[in-house]
């Protein structure tokens, strides 16, 4: 329980209704979607105006209180697990779209706007906001920027960092810092929007985000290619890109995932197939028609047993339902579901698939793999029960092995989930000692008391 | 108050179910309470983490957890949309029973469940008595909706616009029935439920009219008890079992093809909750065949009697609200719409957000009227936006809640049960 005088200070800023310190409230903010131990904060504060965000930040700094900003708490790396005795600041009530500019193609939003709702508002104005993380129905834009969230459209349309044009945020003293602009071109000063993206709440508290919007594609064509050989499917991915076609989405599912999904929805998927590729090309109708034909041909030439081209909207929805079902179907199998996002250069997907197969056998674990093959971002999903201690030890070793393999192939620790607490220990392995030291010096000068989401990203060297 | 270690042990029995929640948070997108409050403890993920924390002694505030657990409509939307297939309703009902066992039942609930709902005859007498004197306390506010409000400050009623208790309960209007199968070759048992019996007897009359029209024989014994859900959702498993037992006496040995109800909540309770939540093995075995025969009235009309939508129907615009217990628990959505379209004199318009909860949630609306009102207002606004001239639904509790909100907002869109709309069309 936080001390009463401190609670009064928070209440003076946001009102008593928006300060929670009872155990039955704080415990509900002790976790996120990562499989990590929970840590309850001392206080949870829910500002309703962005100015209050700055005041709360300054207050935390004054008292040296660890501060973790939380949107929907859907992230998969422990980025929103707070510090013991710390403060959780909720952005849920800061959910206004301040401006949606259809002439200059940008929007200014508060950090708590829900991603899917924003995308729908944008679509209603005839425009397009492409980043579509799997949790978009609840995830917030502030969280998307903080974690640099990706999604199914990353291959062609990029991820959240490609859409952040400008930002304003509060520094630890509660001063408002602004950078970037409403213009497409802007080279004024340091690229602070770039610095804040993927900073996971460790450098500042977001106030407003300026996001780029684009015209939507006029047409799209989806298809499902069925393979009897994983390697053939993996090589097809490279062949499509090598043919200078950039699909909007190019998704992969392995045999285990196919069977699990089919069992889940009885969708009539080819359960004997070694792998599926789910592909969608979009753009101008003429270009879509041409590219779809080429993709179909490439798939066949590279050993696809069949290519099912969507005939209409219903058929297209069915193709994508299979992909959307991948995670829920796997999650239904076992109590604990560890969703990783090790990412490799596209050309290394065949090798990565072989490595995952070897790792699952070596550690005697069930691993279903699906994911964004087009951008090399795979989701090996380990199915386990964290209460089984022996198996859990093997799971942790398998995760180490997955990252060893990915990094050895020139890949990365995280395609879209962020580093948080879960992957901090591997940071030096991907970067360098100097990178960590540089980041720490930067953090130290911006946040001398270390109050901003401590324990994340670069924390492994702190102890 | 029992021993906390015993509480921990009992909650640990839920561990296999609790552990299935992977904390993805997708329940936030669909939870009507979270939409209003934005608080994690109000959504399934938060509540499951609180129960998990209590079971593993990470937190030690059973009272706080119970209060949070009670802030739930039990609409089941989270469960219907849960990627991990977590049995949220099952967990919450069991956890409420465990926590109620720990704290004991409140005196008011004890009186209502143990002295009243478990004794149908006394319940009938008391409501009949109440209906005669309610004019002293309530005055009409909206003739179309048939709502009233309190004449003076009343703690439970607050500023509600509520339908008055029927002057004559359904069981007083309709005789006990035991007809053979009619021309349809079918014979059904009719379970009207408390709300239809005491507040909306016209819905019961509509059911009888429709069944007679289709040549269906009716078995309707008097002395039916409440389905038990009010007691169970308050954690009183003993009273729940008593009510199920009373109903088992009436129905378990009778011969009928289906047991039908016009109440979504009763349907879901009889069909899903009775088999999973009754503990007594003997009773469980006796009610299993009854549960297996449960159909919502629209489901019966469409799936069994073959009622179909009529082409080119036109008339007043009628829209439909999906009661949570029909949509989320029983997955019945198409049939009520078909029944409306089968009237031939209504033009059906889809209700924006038809699937979202109306915010009633039984005793939730009594304990958390402020949140209940806000959720209900969203529904009332959807009804206004739809341009409908009648709102139809399949649950008397939803009818009551939506009538309250429409009435408070000064709207006079009549709220009817689907079966009433259909019965009206039969002339």
TrEMBL record, chain A:
<dbReference type="InterPro" id="IPR016167">
    <property type="entry name" value="FAD-bd_PCMH_sub1"/>
</dbReference>
<dbReference type="GO" id="GO:0016491">
    <property type="term" value="F:oxidoreductase activity"/>
</dbReference>
<dbReference type="InterPro" id="IPR016164">
    <property type="entry name" value="FAD-linked_Oxase-like_C"/>
</dbReference>
<dbReference type="InterPro" id="IPR036318">
    <property type="entry name" value="FAD-bd_PCMH-like_sf"/>
</dbReference>
<protein>
    <submittedName>
        <fullName>FAD-binding protein</fullName>
    </submittedName>
</protein>
<dbReference type="InterPro" id="IPR016171">
    <property type="entry name" value="Vanillyl_alc_oxidase_C-sub2"/>
</dbReference>
<keyword id="KW-0560">Oxidoreductase</keyword>
<comment type="similarity">
    <text>Belongs to the FAD-binding oxidoreductase/transferase type 4 family.</text>
</comment>
<dbReference type="InterPro" id="IPR016169">
    <property type="entry name" value="FAD-bd_PCMH_sub2"/>
</dbReference>
<dbReference type="InterPro" id="IPR016166">
    <property type="entry name" value="FAD-bd_PCMH"/>
</dbReference>
<keyword id="KW-0274">FAD</keyword>
<keyword id="KW-0285">Flavoprotein</keyword>
<dbReference type="Pfam" id="PF01565">
    <property type="entry name" value="FAD_binding_4"/>
</dbReference>
<dbReference type="InterPro" id="IPR004113">
    <property type="entry name" value="FAD-bd_oxidored_4_C"/>
</dbReference>
<dbReference type="InterPro" id="IPR006094">
    <property type="entry name" value="Oxid_FAD_bind_N"/>
</dbReference>
<dbReference type="Pfam" id="PF02913">
    <property type="entry name" value="FAD-oxidase_C"/>
</dbReference>
<dbReference type="GO" id="GO:0071949">
    <property type="term" value="F:FAD binding"/>
</dbReference>
<feature type="domain" description="FAD-binding PCMH-type">
    <location>
        <begin position="36"/>
        <end position="216"/>
    </location>
</feature>
<dbReference type="InterPro" id="IPR051914">
    <property type="entry name" value="FAD-linked_OxidoTrans_Type4"/>
</dbReference>
From TrEMBL, chain B:
<dbReference type="InterPro" id="IPR017900">
    <property type="entry name" value="4Fe4S_Fe_S_CS"/>
</dbReference>
<comment type="function">
    <text>Component of a complex that catalyzes the oxidation of glycolate to glyoxylate.</text>
</comment>
<keyword id="KW-0249">Electron transport</keyword>
<dbReference type="InterPro" id="IPR004017">
    <property type="entry name" value="Cys_rich_dom"/>
</dbReference>
<keyword id="KW-0408">Iron</keyword>
<keyword id="KW-0677">Repeat</keyword>
<keyword id="KW-0411">Iron-sulfur</keyword>
<dbReference type="GO" id="GO:0051539">
    <property type="term" value="F:4 iron, 4 sulfur cluster binding"/>
</dbReference>
<feature type="domain" description="4Fe-4S ferredoxin-type">
    <location>
        <begin position="62"/>
        <end position="92"/>
    </location>
</feature>
<dbReference type="Pfam" id="PF02754">
    <property type="entry name" value="CCG"/>
</dbReference>
<keyword id="KW-0813">Transport</keyword>
<dbReference type="GO" id="GO:0046872">
    <property type="term" value="F:metal ion binding"/>
</dbReference>
<dbReference type="InterPro" id="IPR017896">
    <property type="entry name" value="4Fe4S_Fe-S-bd"/>
</dbReference>
<dbReference type="GO" id="GO:0019154">
    <property type="term" value="F:glycolate dehydrogenase activity"/>
</dbReference>
<dbReference type="InterPro" id="IPR012257">
    <property type="entry name" value="Glc_ox_4Fe-4S"/>
</dbReference>
<dbReference type="Pfam" id="PF13183">
    <property type="entry name" value="Fer4_8"/>
</dbReference>
<keyword id="KW-0479">Metal-binding</keyword>
<dbReference type="InterPro" id="IPR009051">
    <property type="entry name" value="Helical_ferredxn"/>
</dbReference>
<protein>
    <recommendedName>
        <fullName>Glycolate oxidase iron-sulfur subunit</fullName>
        <ecNumber>1.1.99.14</ecNumber>
    </recommendedName>
</protein>
<feature type="domain" description="4Fe-4S ferredoxin-type">
    <location>
        <begin position="10"/>
        <end position="41"/>
    </location>
</feature>
<keyword id="KW-0004">4Fe-4S</keyword>
